[in-house]
Specification:
Length: 480
C-alpha cells in the first residue's frame, strides 16, 4: 500500500510538471513573436493546414494559427483544407473564429470539404478549389453515418444559413424594383444539410447538395480553381512577391487536442467515478485513488490551460469530492452532504466544458450545454455500469486481483451456525464501513458494525446475527 501511495504521488507531480512546462512553453511562444523583422517589400501570407478530421486538435491549430498571423501582421490567412468533416461543436468554434478574424481568411480546398469542412469553408472570405474537388454533404450524422433527428439538422441548417448570410448581399435597383443578391445564397447552404430543399436548376428534393468545383464556381460557392497554394496566392490574391509562413503544430497542441476529445473526456469521467468507488471498497490509499486523481488532472488541465475551466469551476468539483468523503467517512448514512457533493461534482465537470466567462453564460449556446451534459452523463453511466460489472469479477485474476478478498468462504455462513458465534471474540479482516469481513477462529464471515466504522485488525465481539450476517461491536477497552 505504501508503494502504491508513492507511485500515486510521483505520477501526480509528474503530470503537473508536464502541464506547467506546456503552459510556460505556450506563453513563451505567445510573447516571442514580433513583426520587427518583416520585409516591408513583401506581403506575408500565413498558411494553416487542416488536413484531418475536424476535432479539438483542428480547432487548436486554427485558433493558435490565427493568433500568430495577427501578431505577425499578416496580410491574409490561407487554410489548406482537405477533410471529410468531424465534430460539429469544433467546426462551429472554427467558423466563428474565421468570421471574426481581423486578418482575412481564405480557403484552398484540396479535394474535400465535406460536412463540417463545408461549414468552415463557407465562413471564409473567398473559396478556392482544386479541379475535381467537392464541397457540401453537411447533414449531421452519428458515428455509424446515420442522420440524427431533425432538431440537430435544424441547428446545422441555421448555422449554415447564418454563415452564408454573414458575407452580405449586393443591392440591385432596376427601375422601381430593388433586388438583393446574396454573395453566397443561404438556401444553397441549407440544401447541403437538408435533402427536402429543392432549388431550381441546382438540386431536386430528396438529395443532399454537394458541389463539384465547376458547379461551386457556377453558383458562387467557389471563387476560383487552382492546383496549388502558390497559384491561389499569385493568380487570385494577386501577390507575386510574398513570404509564406506556416503554422507548425507542437506536441503540446496535439496532446491538448487529444485530451479534449469528447470520447476521452467521457473515459476520464468514468475513471474518476470508478476510482472513487473502488477506493471506498478497499482500506488505505492505493491504485483506485491514484487513477481517479490522475484522471481528474488530465480532464481539467487542458481545459484550464485553454481558458475554459475557471478556478471556481474546479473548486466546485473539489468541494463535491470533500462532501462525498465526509458523508462516507464521518456522517453515517447518505443524506444532504452526499447528495450535495454529487451534484457539485457533476456540476463542476459540466461547467468546465462550457466556454463561459466567469459567471456570464450569455454566449454559451444550447448546443454546447447539451453536448457538455451528454459527455458527462455518458461518462457517469458507463462508469457506474463498469463498476457493477467489475465488482462481480474483480479479485479472481488479472491486475486487480490484489484489491479484493479471495479467501475461501465456503461454509463460513452455516458452519458453525451463526448463533454459536454470539459472544465470541474475533478480529476485523477488512475495514467495516459499516459492513465488511471479520475473522472468527480462522474463518471469514460477512459482518456489520454496531458501533460505527472499525478499522482493519481491530478486536471485536459478535453480539447478534441476521440475514446471514454477524453484527459486531469493538471489544471494550480497544480504540477503533
Amino acid at each position: 500500500m505504501t508503494h502504491n501511495k508513492y507511485v500515486f504521488i510521483l505520477l501526480s507531480v509528474l503530470i503537473c510538471l508536464i502541464y506547467s512546462e506546456m503552459y510556460a512553453t505556450e506563453l513563451q511562444q505567445d510573447t516571442s513573436i514580433s513583426d520587427t523583422g518583416r520585409d516591408v517589400e513583401k506581403v506575408v501570407i500565413y498558411k494553416i493546414d487542416i488536413k484531418k478530421e475536424i476535432d479539438k486538435t483542428s480547432q487548436i491549430y486554427l485558433s493558435k494559427g490565427l493568433a500568430e498571423a495577427h501578431r505577425l501582421n499578416a496580410d491574409a490567412v490561407l487554410l489548406h483544407l482537405n477533410t471529410f468533416g468531424g465534430l460539429l461543436d469544433a467546426a462551429d468554434s472554427m467558423r466563428t473564429a474565421i468570421l471574426y478574424s481581423p486578418v482575412p481568411v481564405y480557403v484552398f480546398i484540396d479535394n474535400n470539404a465535406a460536412s463540417a469542412g463545408a461549414l468552415i469553408s463557407i465562413a471564409c472570405k473567398k473559396i478556392y478549389m482544386r479541379r475535381g474537388a467537392s464541397i457540401g454533404a453537411a447533414t449531421v450524422v452519428n458515428q455509424t453515418g446515420e442522420a440524427l433527428p431533425d432538431k440537430y439538422q435544424s441547428y446545422m441548417r441555421a448555422m449554415m444559413r447564418a454563415t452564408a448570410e454573414a458575407h452580405g448581399h449586393d443591392t440591385i435597383v432596376s427601375g422601381a424594383d430593388t433586388v438583393y443578391r446574396w454573395l453566397r445564397n443561404p438556401q444553397i447552404a441549407e440544401a447541403m444539410v437538408d435533402d427536402r430543399i429543392a432549388i431550381t436548376n441546382v438540386i431536386d428534393s430528396g438529395k443532399t447538395l454537394t458541389f463539384t468545383s465547376e458547379e461551386a464556381l457556377q453558383w458562387d460557392y467557389c471563387d476560383g480553381i487552382a492546383e496549388s497554394v502558390d497559384e491561389v496566392i499569385t493568380k487570385y490574391l494577386h501577390h507575386n512577391e510574398y513570404t509564406l509562413e506556416s503554422y507548425e503544430p507542437s506536441w503540446h497542441d496535439n496532446a491538448k487536442g487529444f485530451l479534449m476529445n469528447p470520447v476521452l473526456q467521457s473515459i476520464l469521467i468514468m475513471l474518476i467515478v470508478g476510482g472513487i468507488y473502488f477506493e471506498l471498497q478497499t482500506p488505505g490509499v492505493g491504485f483506485p485513488s491514484a487513477a481517479a486523481v490522475i484522471a481528474a488532472i488530465l480532464y481539467f488541465a487542458p481545459l484550464y490551460i485553454d481558458g475554459m475551466a475557471a478556478n471556481w469551476e474546479i473548486i466546485i468539483f473539489i468541494i463535491g469530492l470533500i462532501l462525498i468523503a465526509l458523508e462516507i467517512f464521518v456522517i453515517p448514512g447518505f443524506g444532504v452532504a452526499g447528495v450535495t457533493g454529487g451534484l457539485l461534482l457533476i456540476g463542476g465537470l459540466i461547467l468546465a466544458l462550457l466556454n463561459n466567462v466567469n459567471f456570464n453564460f450569455d454566449y454559451v449556446t444550447d448546443f454546447e450545454i447539451g453536448r457538455s451534459v451528454l459527455v458527462v452523463l455518458i461518462g457517469l453511466t458507463v462508469g457506474f455500469g463498469g463498476m457493477i460489472w467489475l465488482s462481480s469479477r474483480i479479485g479472481t485474476k488479472g491486475a486487480l486481483r490484489h484489491i479484493a478478498l479471495t479467501a475461501d468462504l465456503e461454509g463460513a455462513v452455516s458452519t458453525p451456525p451463526l448463533a454459536l458465534l454470539i459472544g465470541c471474540e474475533g478480529v476485523t479482516a477488512t475495514v467495516l464501513r459499516p459492513s465488511g469481513k471479520v475473522l472468527f477462529d480462522g474463518k471469514y464471515y460477512d459482518a456489520i458494525s454496531d458501533s460505527g466504522f472499525i478499522d482493519k485488525g481491530q478486536p471485536i465481539v459478535a453480539v447478534r446475527f441476521s440475514n446471514a450476517q454477524v453484527y459486531v461491536l469493538i471489544k471494550k477497552g480497544t480504540r477503533g
